[in-house]
Design goal:
single chain, mainly alpha, Histone, subunit A, two-stranded antiparallel ribbon, 41% helix, 4% strand, flat
Length: 95
C-alpha cells in the first residue's frame, strides 16, 4: 500500500497534528517504510506455524487460588459517611 502526500496531510489534519511540508514528506517516507514492512510480513507463509502466546517458551508461575486477606467490610463501612443495607451512599451528581 502506498500513500500520497495528500493522504498524509489528511491523516495529520484528522489527528489534529500541525505538520509542515518538510515534516509531511518525512512522514510519508516513514509510513511508506512501515507499510512496506507490513506487506513483507503478510507475504510470509505461516500455515505450519503454531500460534503462541509468547516469543519464548516460558511458563507462568501459578499460585494457589485461596483467600489471603480477612473480610474488613464492617470496619470500612463503620467510617463511611453514609451506608444503607451494606451499600455506600453517595450524593447525586447528575440531575
Amino acid at each position: 500500500m502506498s500513500l500520497s502526500l495528500d493522504e498524509v496531510k489528511r491523516v495529520a489534519m484528522l489527528a489534529r497534528i500541525e505538520v509542515t511540508e518538510a515534516e509531511s514528506a518525512q512522514m510519508l517516507e516513514q509510513l511508506s517504510g512501515v507499510f512496506g514492512l507490513i506487506e513483507k510480513m503478510q507475504a510470509t507463509d505461516t500455515t505450519d506455524v503454531e500460534p503462541m502466546a509468547h516469543a519464548q517458551d516460558v511458563v507462568a508461575r501459578l499460585r494457589p487460588d485461596k483467600v489471603t486477606e480477612s473480610d474488613q467490610k464492617d470496619l470500612f463501612q463503620s467510617v463511611a459517611p453514609a451506608v444503607e443495607n451494606g451499600l455506600y451512599l453517595v450524593p447525586k451528581v447528575i440531575e
